[in-house]
Amino acid sequence: MTVERDYSFLGPRRSAPDVEPSLKVGIAPTPDFTLMSLACFVEFLRHAADESDHSRRVYCDWTLLSHSLEKIRASCGFAIEPTGLFGDPRDFDYVVVHGGILHSREPVPQALYDFVLKAHDAKVPIIGLCSGQFVLAELGLLSGRRCAVHFSYEAALRSRFPDVIPVTDMPVVHDDPFITCPGGLAAINLAMSLVGKHCGKARVHKVLHYFLADRGFDEMRNSVAGEDELGLSCPDRRVANAIGLMRQQVFDTSRVEDIAYQVGTTKRELTRLFNRHLRSPPGQYWRNMRLNSAHWMIVNSDRSVTQIAYECGFTDSSHLIRWFKRRYDTTPARLRRLRSDIGVH
After folding, report:
1. Cys-Cys link to 96, which of 127, 131, 153, 205 (CB 3.0-4.6 A)?
2. How many CB atoms are closer than 10 A to CB 47?
3. Tens of pLDDT, residues 23-49
Protein backbone atom coordinates (compact mmCIF):
# COMPACT_ATOMS: atom_id res chain seq x y z
CA MET A 1 0.00 0.00 0.00
CA THR A 2 1.42 3.35 -1.04
CA VAL A 3 0.48 6.25 1.19
CA GLU A 4 0.69 9.79 -0.11
CA ARG A 5 1.63 12.31 2.53
CA ASP A 6 1.66 15.95 1.46
CA TYR A 7 0.89 18.76 3.88
CA SER A 8 2.96 21.38 2.12
CA PHE A 9 -0.08 23.66 2.04
CA LEU A 10 0.40 24.13 5.78
CA GLY A 11 3.90 25.56 5.29
CA PRO A 12 4.88 29.22 5.20
CA ARG A 13 3.49 31.30 2.34
CA ARG A 14 6.05 34.08 2.61
CA SER A 15 9.79 33.98 3.10
CA ALA A 16 11.05 34.67 6.61
CA PRO A 17 12.11 38.24 7.45
CA ASP A 18 15.86 38.72 7.10
CA VAL A 19 16.49 39.92 10.65
CA GLU A 20 18.93 39.11 13.42
CA PRO A 21 17.28 36.99 16.16
CA SER A 22 16.42 39.12 19.18
CA LEU A 23 17.16 36.27 21.58
CA LYS A 24 20.07 33.83 21.33
CA VAL A 25 20.46 31.10 23.94
CA GLY A 26 23.24 28.58 24.43
CA ILE A 27 22.15 25.52 26.43
CA ALA A 28 24.73 23.33 28.18
CA PRO A 29 23.16 20.15 29.62
CA THR A 30 24.75 18.01 32.32
CA PRO A 31 24.70 14.20 32.07
CA ASP A 32 21.26 12.77 32.93
CA PHE A 33 19.56 16.12 32.29
CA THR A 34 15.75 16.18 32.45
CA LEU A 35 14.17 16.05 29.01
CA MET A 36 10.89 17.64 30.10
CA SER A 37 12.47 20.90 31.22
CA LEU A 38 14.56 21.12 28.05
CA ALA A 39 11.55 20.39 25.84
CA CYS A 40 9.31 22.95 27.61
CA PHE A 41 11.99 25.63 27.35
CA VAL A 42 13.09 25.00 23.76
CA GLU A 43 9.58 24.43 22.39
CA PHE A 44 8.49 27.78 23.77
CA LEU A 45 11.44 29.43 22.02
CA ARG A 46 10.69 27.53 18.81
CA HIS A 47 7.09 28.71 18.65
CA ALA A 48 8.06 32.26 19.61
CA ALA A 49 10.72 32.33 16.90
CA ASP A 50 8.36 32.22 13.91
CA GLU A 51 4.76 32.44 12.76
CA SER A 52 2.42 29.49 13.17
CA ASP A 53 4.39 26.24 13.55
CA HIS A 54 7.03 26.79 10.89
CA SER A 55 10.10 26.33 13.13
CA ARG A 56 12.21 28.98 11.41
CA ARG A 57 14.62 30.73 13.75
CA VAL A 58 13.59 34.27 12.96
CA TYR A 59 13.22 35.96 16.34
CA CYS A 60 14.89 33.39 18.62
CA ASP A 61 17.84 31.05 18.21
CA TRP A 62 19.14 28.27 20.43
CA THR A 63 22.14 25.96 20.44
CA LEU A 64 22.71 22.77 22.43
CA LEU A 65 26.31 23.00 23.57
CA SER A 66 28.88 20.49 24.76
CA HIS A 67 32.62 19.85 24.77
CA SER A 68 32.21 17.25 22.00
CA LEU A 69 29.60 16.20 19.48
CA GLU A 70 28.94 12.90 21.27
CA LYS A 71 25.34 12.33 22.31
CA ILE A 72 24.26 13.43 25.78
CA ARG A 73 21.94 11.05 27.59
CA ALA A 74 18.86 12.37 29.36
CA SER A 75 17.60 10.89 32.61
CA CYS A 76 14.78 9.12 30.71
CA GLY A 77 17.36 7.23 28.61
CA PHE A 78 16.99 9.19 25.38
CA ALA A 79 20.19 10.65 23.94
CA ILE A 80 20.47 13.84 21.90
CA GLU A 81 23.27 15.27 19.82
CA PRO A 82 24.78 18.68 20.58
CA THR A 83 24.46 21.26 17.82
CA GLY A 84 27.53 23.26 18.81
CA LEU A 85 30.73 23.18 20.83
CA PHE A 86 31.73 25.37 23.76
CA GLY A 87 33.25 28.48 22.28
CA ASP A 88 32.77 32.18 22.87
CA PRO A 89 29.86 32.68 25.33
CA ARG A 90 29.44 36.20 23.97
CA ASP A 91 27.74 34.62 20.96
CA PHE A 92 24.67 34.27 23.20
CA ASP A 93 22.42 36.56 25.18
CA TYR A 94 22.19 33.85 27.85
CA VAL A 95 24.00 30.67 28.76
CA VAL A 96 21.71 28.05 30.28
CA VAL A 97 23.21 25.35 32.48
CA HIS A 98 20.60 22.60 32.28
CA GLY A 99 20.80 20.01 35.06
CA GLY A 100 18.99 16.84 35.97
CA ILE A 101 19.72 13.94 38.30
CA LEU A 102 22.29 15.10 40.85
CA HIS A 103 23.43 11.58 41.73
CA SER A 104 24.25 10.71 38.13
CA ARG A 105 27.11 8.24 37.80
CA GLU A 106 28.54 10.29 34.94
CA PRO A 107 30.43 13.36 36.16
CA VAL A 108 29.87 16.87 34.86
CA PRO A 109 32.65 17.54 32.30
CA GLN A 110 35.31 19.98 33.45
CA ALA A 111 34.86 21.75 30.11
CA LEU A 112 31.34 22.72 31.15
CA TYR A 113 32.60 24.28 34.39
CA ASP A 114 35.26 26.15 32.41
CA PHE A 115 32.68 27.43 29.93
CA VAL A 116 30.44 28.71 32.73
CA LEU A 117 33.34 30.60 34.31
CA LYS A 118 34.25 32.00 30.91
CA ALA A 119 30.67 33.23 30.45
CA HIS A 120 30.73 34.80 33.91
CA ASP A 121 33.99 36.60 33.15
CA ALA A 122 32.49 37.84 29.88
CA LYS A 123 29.45 39.16 31.81
CA VAL A 124 27.03 36.96 29.89
CA PRO A 125 23.92 36.30 32.03
CA ILE A 126 23.85 32.68 33.25
CA ILE A 127 20.73 30.62 33.91
CA GLY A 128 20.56 27.57 36.16
CA LEU A 129 17.67 25.36 34.98
CA CYS A 130 16.35 22.28 36.78
CA SER A 131 19.41 21.40 38.93
CA GLY A 132 21.83 23.44 36.84
CA GLN A 133 22.09 25.94 39.71
CA PHE A 134 24.11 23.33 41.62
CA VAL A 135 26.85 23.73 39.00
CA LEU A 136 26.83 27.46 39.65
CA ALA A 137 26.91 26.88 43.41
CA GLU A 138 29.80 24.43 43.07
CA LEU A 139 31.75 27.21 41.34
CA GLY A 140 30.98 29.61 44.21
CA LEU A 141 28.92 31.90 41.97
CA LEU A 142 25.71 31.88 44.05
CA SER A 143 27.17 32.76 47.44
CA GLY A 144 24.75 35.05 49.27
CA ARG A 145 22.28 34.95 46.38
CA ARG A 146 18.65 33.82 46.12
CA CYS A 147 18.20 30.68 44.08
CA ALA A 148 15.05 29.00 42.76
CA VAL A 149 15.28 25.29 43.49
CA HIS A 150 12.88 22.35 43.30
CA PHE A 151 11.47 21.58 46.75
CA SER A 152 12.93 18.06 46.62
CA TYR A 153 16.44 19.53 46.31
CA GLU A 154 16.08 22.26 48.93
CA ALA A 155 17.68 20.19 51.72
CA ALA A 156 20.60 19.23 49.49
CA LEU A 157 21.21 22.87 48.59
CA ARG A 158 21.04 23.97 52.23
CA SER A 159 23.40 21.20 53.30
CA ARG A 160 26.02 21.60 50.59
CA PHE A 161 25.82 25.37 50.16
CA PRO A 162 24.57 27.04 53.37
CA ASP A 163 25.47 30.48 52.01
CA VAL A 164 22.96 30.15 49.15
CA ILE A 165 19.37 31.25 49.82
CA PRO A 166 16.92 28.63 48.46
CA VAL A 167 13.53 29.72 47.07
CA THR A 168 10.93 27.00 46.48
CA ASP A 169 7.77 29.04 45.86
CA MET A 170 8.77 30.93 42.70
CA PRO A 171 9.16 29.54 39.15
CA VAL A 172 11.93 31.99 38.24
CA VAL A 173 14.31 33.98 40.45
CA HIS A 174 16.39 36.86 39.10
CA ASP A 175 19.48 37.75 41.13
CA ASP A 176 21.68 39.51 38.61
CA PRO A 177 23.62 38.35 36.76
CA PHE A 178 22.05 34.95 37.46
CA ILE A 179 18.60 33.53 36.78
CA THR A 180 17.46 30.26 38.31
CA CYS A 181 14.46 28.01 37.60
CA PRO A 182 13.53 24.69 39.26
CA GLY A 183 12.56 23.05 35.98
CA GLY A 184 9.46 21.08 35.02
CA LEU A 185 6.64 23.26 33.73
CA ALA A 186 8.37 26.24 35.35
CA ALA A 187 10.73 26.12 32.35
CA ILE A 188 7.82 27.63 30.41
CA ASN A 189 7.78 30.55 32.87
CA LEU A 190 11.50 30.99 32.26
CA ALA A 191 11.03 31.04 28.49
CA MET A 192 8.11 33.45 28.85
CA SER A 193 10.31 35.83 30.82
CA LEU A 194 13.10 35.82 28.23
CA VAL A 195 10.82 36.02 25.18
CA GLY A 196 8.74 38.80 26.73
CA LYS A 197 11.85 40.85 27.47
CA HIS A 198 13.58 40.39 24.10
CA CYS A 199 10.76 39.73 21.62
CA GLY A 200 7.71 41.36 23.17
CA LYS A 201 4.56 40.19 24.93
CA ALA A 202 2.75 39.52 21.67
CA ARG A 203 5.10 36.61 21.01
CA VAL A 204 4.45 35.26 24.52
CA HIS A 205 0.67 35.36 24.03
CA LYS A 206 1.01 33.73 20.62
CA VAL A 207 2.85 30.74 22.13
CA LEU A 208 0.55 30.39 25.13
CA HIS A 209 -2.48 30.28 22.88
CA TYR A 210 -0.80 27.75 20.59
CA PHE A 211 0.11 25.60 23.61
CA LEU A 212 -3.56 25.63 24.68
CA ALA A 213 -2.21 26.75 28.04
CA ASP A 214 -5.52 28.32 28.98
CA ARG A 215 -7.49 25.12 28.49
CA GLY A 216 -7.74 21.76 30.16
CA PHE A 217 -5.44 22.13 33.18
CA ASP A 218 -8.21 22.73 35.71
CA GLU A 219 -10.12 19.74 34.39
CA MET A 220 -7.02 17.54 34.60
CA ARG A 221 -6.30 18.62 38.16
CA ASN A 222 -9.90 18.04 39.20
CA SER A 223 -9.92 14.56 37.65
CA VAL A 224 -7.06 13.42 39.92
CA ALA A 225 -7.88 15.58 42.94
CA GLY A 226 -7.84 13.79 46.28
CA GLU A 227 -8.07 14.70 49.91
CA ASP A 228 -4.49 15.98 49.95
CA GLU A 229 -5.25 18.70 47.37
CA LEU A 230 -6.10 20.99 50.28
CA GLY A 231 -2.63 20.48 51.67
CA LEU A 232 -0.92 21.15 48.36
CA SER A 233 -2.68 24.51 48.16
CA CYS A 234 -1.73 25.38 51.74
CA PRO A 235 -0.36 28.95 51.96
CA ASP A 236 2.55 27.70 54.10
CA ARG A 237 5.04 26.33 51.61
CA ARG A 238 6.60 24.05 54.23
CA VAL A 239 3.35 22.12 54.45
CA ALA A 240 2.81 22.00 50.68
CA ASN A 241 6.42 20.95 50.05
CA ALA A 242 6.25 18.33 52.79
CA ILE A 243 3.19 16.79 51.13
CA GLY A 244 4.99 16.87 47.79
CA LEU A 245 7.89 14.95 49.34
CA MET A 246 5.51 12.48 50.95
CA ARG A 247 3.97 11.82 47.54
CA GLN A 248 7.43 11.08 46.15
CA GLN A 249 8.27 8.69 48.97
CA VAL A 250 5.20 6.47 49.30
CA PHE A 251 7.13 3.20 49.67
CA ASP A 252 10.25 4.75 51.16
CA THR A 253 11.09 4.31 54.82
CA SER A 254 11.83 7.96 55.53
CA ARG A 255 10.64 9.46 58.78
CA VAL A 256 8.70 12.64 59.48
CA GLU A 257 11.96 14.05 60.89
CA ASP A 258 13.55 13.56 57.48
CA ILE A 259 10.69 15.33 55.70
CA ALA A 260 10.84 18.22 58.18
CA TYR A 261 14.58 18.62 57.62
CA GLN A 262 14.14 18.63 53.85
CA VAL A 263 11.66 21.51 54.04
CA GLY A 264 13.83 23.49 56.44
CA THR A 265 12.06 22.97 59.76
CA THR A 266 11.80 20.56 62.71
CA LYS A 267 9.44 17.66 63.37
CA ARG A 268 7.82 19.61 66.19
CA GLU A 269 7.22 22.70 64.04
CA LEU A 270 5.99 20.64 61.07
CA THR A 271 3.55 18.83 63.37
CA ARG A 272 2.27 22.17 64.62
CA LEU A 273 1.79 23.41 61.05
CA PHE A 274 -0.03 20.25 59.91
CA ASN A 275 -2.33 20.37 62.94
CA ARG A 276 -3.03 24.03 62.30
CA HIS A 277 -3.70 23.85 58.57
CA LEU A 278 -4.88 20.27 58.04
CA ARG A 279 -6.14 19.17 61.46
CA SER A 280 -3.90 16.11 61.21
CA PRO A 281 -0.33 15.36 62.34
CA PRO A 282 2.11 14.68 59.47
CA GLY A 283 2.60 11.02 60.38
CA GLN A 284 -1.12 10.31 60.18
CA TYR A 285 -1.46 12.34 56.99
CA TRP A 286 1.37 10.39 55.37
CA ARG A 287 -0.06 7.05 56.53
CA ASN A 288 -3.47 7.93 55.06
CA MET A 289 -1.74 8.76 51.80
CA ARG A 290 -0.14 5.31 51.80
CA LEU A 291 -3.46 3.69 52.67
CA ASN A 292 -5.13 5.48 49.76
CA SER A 293 -2.51 3.99 47.44
CA ALA A 294 -2.96 0.54 48.99
CA HIS A 295 -6.74 0.76 48.61
CA TRP A 296 -6.38 1.59 44.91
CA MET A 297 -4.01 -1.35 44.38
CA ILE A 298 -6.29 -3.76 46.22
CA VAL A 299 -9.22 -2.80 44.00
CA ASN A 300 -7.40 -2.32 40.69
CA SER A 301 -4.54 -4.83 40.65
CA ASP A 302 -3.85 -8.51 41.34
CA ARG A 303 -0.74 -7.82 43.43
CA SER A 304 -0.49 -9.78 46.67
CA VAL A 305 -1.16 -7.99 49.94
CA THR A 306 2.48 -8.55 50.85
CA GLN A 307 3.65 -6.82 47.67
CA ILE A 308 1.21 -3.96 48.17
CA ALA A 309 2.40 -3.52 51.75
CA TYR A 310 5.96 -3.17 50.49
CA GLU A 311 5.04 -0.73 47.72
CA CYS A 312 3.07 1.44 50.13
CA GLY A 313 5.74 1.68 52.81
CA PHE A 314 4.38 -0.71 55.46
CA THR A 315 6.77 -2.99 57.31
CA ASP A 316 4.81 -6.14 56.38
CA SER A 317 1.33 -7.34 55.40
CA SER A 318 0.16 -7.51 59.02
CA HIS A 319 1.08 -3.87 59.49
CA LEU A 320 -0.90 -2.90 56.39
CA ILE A 321 -3.92 -5.03 57.33
CA ARG A 322 -4.10 -3.52 60.81
CA TRP A 323 -4.13 0.08 59.59
CA PHE A 324 -6.30 -0.76 56.58
CA LYS A 325 -9.01 -2.18 58.83
CA ARG A 326 -8.91 0.89 61.07
CA ARG A 327 -9.30 3.21 58.09
CA TYR A 328 -11.81 1.31 55.93
CA ASP A 329 -13.45 -1.00 58.46
CA THR A 330 -12.60 -4.03 56.36
CA THR A 331 -9.55 -6.07 55.42
CA PRO A 332 -7.80 -5.95 52.03
CA ALA A 333 -8.79 -9.56 51.30
CA ARG A 334 -12.44 -8.93 52.15
CA LEU A 335 -12.55 -5.77 50.03
CA ARG A 336 -10.97 -7.58 47.07
CA ARG A 337 -13.37 -10.52 47.43
CA LEU A 338 -16.37 -8.19 47.62
CA ARG A 339 -15.30 -6.33 44.51
CA SER A 340 -14.79 -9.60 42.69
CA ASP A 341 -18.17 -10.97 43.75
CA ILE A 342 -20.09 -7.95 42.46
CA GLY A 343 -17.98 -7.66 39.33
CA VAL A 344 -16.56 -4.18 39.98
CA HIS A 345 -13.22 -3.47 38.31
Report:
1. 127
2. 23
3. 999 999 999 999 999 999 999 999 999
